[in-house]
């Protein structure tokens, strides 16, 4: 990855290292429930990825590994990577405590080709991942390179329209472009699990439209099986969302103007 992004990645890594301790103690991640057998995966990805038993799975941007370990519990042979060394340290500790066989590697996504050996049946990534990446063309190429022939890539992510709003303002203000090549910098108190946490989050991110995401994958030779869009989110991470009867969250009725999530499944022919 070009040196011009080095500063951005260093700032983001420092913030995510600080977030690990807060997140791992939060109700949001419910680590005790997880240790007692609760899955961290949601209905969307469980249904759309399907049976992973006996399959090798590479989880990109895995935070401190709960989803990786949830796939491991379902029978996949998992490898999780993340930028944060604190996240990987916590993931390894959880793996040992639960007696699972996942592998965790500290790695910037763009260093995966040199840090992760072999090819996989499934490459998986989810919820709040795309925005940390300045270059999706290389991202798509890395995914294609890490998939076996016939392998599946699956992404579930917050919709790009969601990231056009500045949530530090009340009400949220339409402030950012649908897609952009320049970094967006934000600095705010707390984190999405606790607005009052004693942390100043300093973050560089990039907005990517659906066209850019799809083109990165097809340009790398992957075949798009589907693109789904959803009006509900399993996470209450945006202001004034309404809880639904199925324990999901959605925009207020009068404001349902855009989807909250999208998912993509792609295959390597």
Describe it.
The chain is of the alpha/beta class and about 270 residues long. The protein has one domain (about 5-269): 3-Layer(aba) Sandwich (Rossmann fold). It is about 30% helix and about 25% strand. The protein has eight helices and 14 strands. The strands form four sheets. The protein has a seven-stranded mixed sheet with strand order 3-2-1-4-5-14-10, sandwiched between helices. Helix 1 (about 5-25) packs parallel to helix 5 and helix 7 (about 135-145) packs across helix 8. It is globular, with a radius of gyration of 18 Å. It starts with 5 loop residues before the first helix and ends with a strand. The relative contact order is 0.15. It holds the Pfam family Methyltransf_11. This is Methyltransferase domain-containing protein. GO terms for molecular function: S-adenosylmethionine-dependent methyltransferase activity. One of its GO terms (biological process) is methylation.
């Amino acid at each position: 990855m070009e040196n011009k992004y080095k500063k951005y990645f260093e700032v983001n890594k420092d913030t995510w290292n600080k977030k690990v301790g807060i997140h791992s103690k939060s109700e949001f991640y419910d680590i005790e429930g997880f240790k007692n057998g609760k899955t961290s995966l949601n209905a969307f990805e469980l249904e759309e990825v399907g049976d992973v038993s006996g399959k090798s799975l590479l989880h990109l941007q895995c935070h401190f590994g709960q989803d990786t370990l949830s796939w491991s519990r379902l029978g996949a042979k998992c490898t999780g990577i993340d930028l944060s060394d604190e996240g990987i340290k916590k993931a390894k500790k959880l793996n040992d405590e639960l007696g699972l066989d996942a592998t965790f590697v500290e790695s910037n996504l763009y260093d995966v080709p040199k840090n992760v050996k072999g090819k996989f049946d499934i490459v998986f990534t989810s919820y709040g991942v795309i925005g940390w990446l300045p270059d999706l063309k290389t991202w798509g190429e890395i995914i294609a390179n890490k998939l076996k022939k016939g392998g599946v890539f699956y992404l579930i992510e917050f919709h790009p329209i969601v990231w056009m709003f500045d949530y530090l303002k009340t009400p949220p203000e339409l402030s950012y472009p649908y897609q952009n090549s320049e970094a967006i910098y934000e600095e705010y108190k707390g984190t999405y699990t606790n607005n009052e946490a004693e942390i100043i989050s300093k973050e560089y991110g990039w907005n990517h439209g659906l066209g850019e995401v799809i083109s990165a994958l097809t340009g790398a030779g992957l075949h798009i099986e589907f693109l789904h869009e959803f009006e509900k989110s399993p996470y209450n991470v945006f202001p004034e969302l309404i809880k639904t009867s199925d324990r999901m969250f959605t925009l207020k009725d009068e404001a349902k103007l855009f989807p909250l999530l999208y998912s993509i499944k792609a295959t390597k022919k």
